[in-house]
Every structure is written in C-alpha cells, then in structure tokens.
Amino acid sequence: MATEAHGSEEGGLVFHPMDQFIVKPLFGDGPVSFFTITNVTLWMAVAIVAVVVLMVLGTSRRAVIPSRTQSVAELAYGFIYKMVEDVAGKDAVGFFPYIMTLFMFIVFANFLGLIPMSFTTTSHFAVTVVLALLVFVTVTIVGFVKNGAKFLGLFWVSSAPLALRPILAVIELISYFVRPVSHSIRLAGNVMAGHAVIKVFAGFAAIAVVSPVSVVAITAMYGLEVLVAFIQAYVFTILTCVYLKDALHPSH
Amino acid sequence: MEGQLAHIGAGLAAIGSGAAAIGVGNVAGNFLAGALRNPSAAASQTATLFIGIAFAEALGIFSFLVALLLMFAV
Amino acid sequence: MATETQAADAAHGASAPGMPQLDFSNWGHQIFWLLVTLVVIYFVLSRIALPRIAAVLAERQGTITNDIAAAEDLKAKAVEAEEAYNKALADARAEAQRIIAEAKAEIQADLDAATAKADAEIAAKTAESEKRISEIRAGAMQSVEEVARDTAAEIVAAMGGKADAKTVAAAVAERMKG
C-alpha cells in the first residue's frame, strides 16, 4: 500500500509513520530467524547496558553520600520498592526484583526509543504481549498457590445481590482475561502512537511553509512523549502491583 | 474502493480517541476537584489517578489500534 | 494482514506495507531476545544491584542514626562546656572584684597610714616651731627688758644721777607691764 512509488504519486508528501518499527537484520539481509542479530537485539542490548551502567556501575562505590548516578539508582529502587509495598502489600516484597526488572526494562526501552533514529522495542506487540502474559501467568499461578480455590472468590462478588452474582462473575471473568490484552496494548499503543505522530509531523516538514509549525509540533510531541515514556512504565508497573494484590488478597 | 472505505473507517475509529480524551479529562478533572477540596489526601491518591487515567486511555488506544489496522492491515 | 512476502520485503529494507507490529514472522525472534534481556536484567538486578542498593540504604540509615546520636552527644557537650565557661567567667569576675576590693583596701590603708604619719609629723613640726617661736619671743622680751634697763641706767647716769640697778629694774619691769 504505502510503497515509495505510491507515496510520491500522492503529491510529494511521503508518510511512512510505521517504517520506524520495521525489524531489520543488522548484518546483511535475509529472513529474521530466532537468533538473527537485528535492531531489536541491538536496542535490547543497549537497554541491558543502560541498566547495568545505572544500577551496577552507578552504585559500585557504595558511597554513603551518593554520587549523582547512585542517587538516581537509589531513587528508582525506593520508588518501586515503595510502590510494591504500598499497592501490593508487605507480603509482595518477594516479587520486588521481578517488578523492578519489568520497570527498568520498560523505562529504558521507552527512553532509548526516544533517541532519534533508534528503535523502540516496547512499541512491538510481540514484546508487550510477552511482558503482560508473564505478569498474567505469574499472578494467576501466585493466586492459586497462595489461596487455592479461594482465589476464585475474586470473581464471585459477595457484596452484590445474589441474583446479580452470576452475571457479575461472567463480567469479572471477562475483565480478568482482558487484563493482559489491555495491559500490553496500552504500553505498545501509547509508545507507537507517539512515535507515529512525530513521524507524521516530520512528513509535513517537507512543505517549506509548514515546516516551522511542524518543527514546533514535533518538539511539543517529543516533550509529551518523554512524559508518556515514564508514565507508561509507571502504569505498567503499578498495574502489575494491583494485579498482584488481587492475587495475594482476593477479597472483594 | 475497499481501500477508501477502510480509510473512512479508520477516520471514524479515530473518533474513539476523542472519547478517550473526554474520559481522561474527566478522571483528571475530578481528581483535581477532589484534591483541591482535600489537598492532604491528594498525595496518597496519585496512584489511583494514574490507574484511572490508564484505564480510560487504554480504550482510546484500542480505537487508535483499530484505525491503524484499517489503515495499514486491511 | 501482513503476509510472508511482505515480511520478506521488510527484511529487504523496503518500506513495509502494513504494520510491522503485526508481522508475525518476527515475533519469535523478538520474544526470544526479550526473554534473554529480561533474564539478564533480572539476574543483574537481583544478584548484584538490588542487594547492593539495599545494603547502601541500610548503611546510610545506620550512619544517619549514629550521626544523630553523635550530634546529640556533641550538643550536650557543648551545653556543658558553655555552662562551664559561664561559671568560669562568673568566678573570674568575682575574683577580680575581690582583688580590686582588696587592692583598694590596701591602698586605702597605706594612704591612711601615710596621711596619719604625715599629720603627726606636721603636728610635731608645728609644735616644735611654736615652741621655738615662743622661745624666740621670750628671748626677745628678755632682750628688750635688758636693753631697756641698760638704756635706762645709761640715761640715768648721763643725767648725772646714780642709777640704782634695783630701782631701774623695777621701773623697767613696771613699764613693760604697762
């Protein structure tokens, strides 16, 4: 549909907002197999490096009076630790490394994706669906292991009138299974939408008259995207905590 | 022809993002109103605010997704 | 939907039709690398970073507690020192007052003694002087009487009379009284 030739036929304006999300092999070309080194691999590796630099190298001096990097690492630690404790409860602290992993990966993937010409790994449903399914499966297993059959009480709203309960149970069940869908699509959708919008504005910059407006719009969108990058990581993490709380304390 | 219809459909689906915007505005506005009435309780409810915004926004993202599907995948 | 041929297009770097996100041919690839990434980050965080940060935070908490205790100690010491200083100051002031009073009293005593001695000397000298003045005065009266007697005797002799010494003396003494 949107090939180069096709685009140029449409009066000079070429929009390829989705091209930035293409998975390309870094070396040579050919089909993308499991182990091919692609831009996905590259940017995930950069995310790992960033996490290591911040969380390991940044804290390597173990200073009582922290350096700048160390205080950022401690800030992240305290932020997520408090979130887990406040939202999911004190008995969820065992899941803290897991939730911290999710948060660090998403936040770094989002921010690295904001670097021009980079590749945003979290804009792909393949990534976010796996992240959300990991949370979903973990939460469901934890719920059944900790509470046994009582976990099903999550779907049986005992405060509602008896006649309504079966209907509510169906609704609750559906909403429970929609969780990973919304959880994953929210993250990928937000990130993808922001990047696509920036790309569309960039396409408008080809017209000389519009280009100043377009540059201003890109700048504004970029600012919003910086905010969104953090908020989506935060929301993903806090929803994980909320789901975890449901699994640990399934009382309605 | 079908392609054009898909584009129209994509445009219609994009209305959904406006609806989500109304929802997000509602959540944030009501939070602000409540926070101004009782500022001391506001800090403890920011997490709830973000969860609410996230839920409202997710539905808008769904409509955006439908629009994208119609644009690029049909 | 994205088909295999379109995926091949994408792989060849041509602009991909449709959404790359829905190109299921590379999902396996992405999921594989995502899991690798997550496992690596998980182990880095849970084995190295998080225990280290927790230790640093605990250490800092300990240090802060210790420092606050030490600060309390130092504060108490400072208060003590201030009290001691104030006491020493008051003592020194009292001592100074005492010394000043003593010195004043001593000086006063010396002064008094000196004054008394001087007064006594002056009095003695005055008395002596008065005595000598009265002596001189007495001496003078006597001389005057003698001179008068001699003169009278001479005058009497010159007048041709015989001057009886006794009579002349009595007359002079009478005149002198008068």
Automatic annotation (TrEMBL), chain A:
Give the range the annotation lists for the signal sequence: none
Q: Please indicate if the UniProt record lists Membrane as a keyword.
A: yes
Topology of this chain in the membrane: Multi-pass membrane protein
Q: Quote any Pfam family the record assigns.
A: ATP-synt_A
- Where mainly located? membrane
Q: Where are the transmembrane segments?
A: 34-58, 95-119, 125-145, 152-178, 198-219, 226-245
Q: Which NCBIfam families match?
A: ATP_synt_6_or_A, PRK05815.2-4
The name this protein carries in UniProt is: ATP synthase subunit a
Give the originating organism: Lutimaribacter saemankumensis
Which gene codes for it? Answer: atpB
From TrEMBL, chain B:
Protein name stated in the entry? ATP synthase subunit c
The organism is Lutimaribacter saemankumensis
Q: What does this protein do?
A: Key component of the F(0) channel; it plays a direct role in translocation across the membrane. A homomeric c-ring of between 10-14 subunits forms the central stalk rotor element with the F(1) delta and epsilon subunits.
Which residue range or ranges hold the V-ATPase proteolipid subunit C-like domain?
A: 8-70
Which cellular component terms (GO) are annotated to the entry?
A: plasma membrane; proton-transporting ATP synthase complex; proton-transporting two-sector ATPase complex, proton-transporting domain
The GO terms this record gives for MF are: lipid binding; proton-transporting ATP synthase activity, rotational mechanism
**HAMAP family tied to this protein:** ATP_synth_c_bact
Where in the chain is the site Reversibly protonated during proton transport?
57
The places in or outside the cell where this protein is found are: Cell membrane; Membrane
Automatic annotation (TrEMBL), chain C:
What InterPro entries does the record point to?
Answer: ATP_synth_b/b'su_bac/chlpt (IPR002146), ATP_synthase_B_chain (IPR050059)
One Gene Ontology term, aspect cellular component: endomembrane system
Q: Kindly report the protein's main subcellular placement as a broad class.
A: membrane
Which topology term describes how it sits in the membrane?
Single-pass membrane protein
Q: Which residues form a coiled coil?
A: 71-106
Q: Which Gene3D superfamilies match?
A: 6.10.250.1580
Transmembrane stretches, by residue range? Answer: 31-50
Q: Which UniProt keywords apply?
A: ATP synthesis, Cell membrane, CF(0), Coiled coil, Hydrogen ion transport, Ion transport, Membrane, Transmembrane, Transmembrane helix, Transport
Superkingdom, natural source:
Bacteria
Q: Which Pfam families does the entry link to? A: ATP-synt_B
* GO molecular function terms noted in the UniProt entry: proton-transporting ATP synthase activity, rotational mechanism; proton-transporting ATPase activity, rotational mechanism
The cellular location(s) given in this protein's UniProt record come to: Cell membrane; Endomembrane system
What this chain does, per the entry, is described as: F(1)F(0) ATP synthase produces ATP from ADP in the presence of a proton or sodium gradient. F-type ATPases consist of two structural domains, F(1) containing the extramembraneous catalytic core and F(0) containing the membrane proton channel, linked together by a central stalk and a peripheral stalk. During catalysis, ATP synthesis in the catalytic domain of F(1) is coupled via a rotary mechanism of the central stalk subunits to proton translocation.
Subunit text: F-type ATPases have 2 components, F(1) - the catalytic core - and F(0) - the membrane proton channel. F(1) has five subunits: alpha(3), beta(3), gamma(1), delta(1), epsilon(1). F(0) has three main subunits: a(1), b(2) and c(10-14). The alpha and beta chains form an alternating ring which encloses part of the gamma chain. F(1) is attached to F(0) by a central stalk formed by the gamma and epsilon chains, while a peripheral stalk is formed by the delta and b chains.
By sequence similarity, the record places it as follows:
Belongs to the ATPase B chain family.
> What name appears for this protein in its UniProt entry?
ATP synthase subunit b
Give the originating organism.
Lutimaribacter saemankumensis
